[in-house]
Specification:
By secondary structure, this protein is mostly beta strands. The chain has one helix spanning about 175-185, and strands spanning about 5, 20, 30-35, 40-45, 50-55, 60-65, 70-75, 85-90, 95-100, 105-110, 125-135, 140-145, 160, 185-190. The strands form four sheets. Strands 3-4-5-6 form a four-stranded antiparallel beta sheet, with no helix packed on it. Strands 7-8-9-10 form a four-stranded antiparallel beta sheet, with no helix packed on it. The chain has a four-stranded mixed beta sheet with strand order 11-12-14-13, covered by helices on one side. The termini are close together. The relative contact order is 0.15.
């Protein structure tokens, strides 16, 4: 259910016993992959909110450290004959930034097609990722977006959102208009309830 990456012959495909390249992860879902000249890249996401990038080559997989923490990653390439890999990183309090990844130097170069957006009002925001027990004890992921100086005393106005159906995960998204609620002292809580694909 958390997916794995496999290989089989295109002329004589065997989907029952393919060669497993990347095994299923116990606590995270394999969400995307791309092939390049330098190997295979794939992404995972934990609880629908913690995204990571990996490189796989010669039976070895290695996590690639991102320029900043990410709740959402998308990757694209030009295929196995090219070194090109584009990595887009974003989250609840960070707008999506596009990078080109250089395998040999292990560096990310920002794509400068769009001007970088600055949101100084959001610099004191934090995202807390916790799990809370449901009615039957199963832990459900919950994202809490707040000002780091907000007191947890139960007196903060809170917007609560939750959706779980058809395997659709509530992945992190950046919405500057929604975040004005936090600027005004409110809290945003997003429950990743069962029915989605977070777990």
């Amino acid at each position: 259910p958390n997916f794995q990456l496999c290989k089989t012959s295109i002329n004589n495909p065997d989907f029952n016993t393919p060669e497993i390249l990347v095994s299923e992860k116990e606590d995270r879902v394999i969400s995307d992959f791309e092939l390049t000249k330098d190997g295979l890249y794939f992404t995972t996401i934990k609880n629908g909110v913690e995204a990571k990038l990996y490189h796989f080559r010669n039976t070895k997989e290695k996590e690639i450290k991102l320029p900043n923490p990410s709740g959402r990653i998308s990757i694209s390439s030009k295929g196995p004959k090219h070194e090109f890999l584009k990595v887009s990183i974003g989250g609840y309090i960070n707008p999506t930034v596009h990078y080109y990844y250089d395998f040999l130097s292990n560096t990310f170069m920002p794509e400068n097609l769009n001007p970088k957006s600055e949101f100084p009002d959001f610099k004191y925001f934090i995202v807390e990722e916790i799990e809370i027990p449901s009615h039957d004890g199963v832990l459900v992921p919950l994202s809490i977006i707040r000002n780091k100086n907000s007191k947890k005393d139960g007196n903060n106005r809170t917007l609560f959102f939750g959706y779980g159906s058809y395997g659709a995960s509530g992945n992190p998204f950046f919405d500057s208009s929604l975040l004005t609620w936090v600027v005004e002292g409110g809290i945003i809580a997003i429950a990743h309830v069962r029915g989605g694909g977070e777990k």
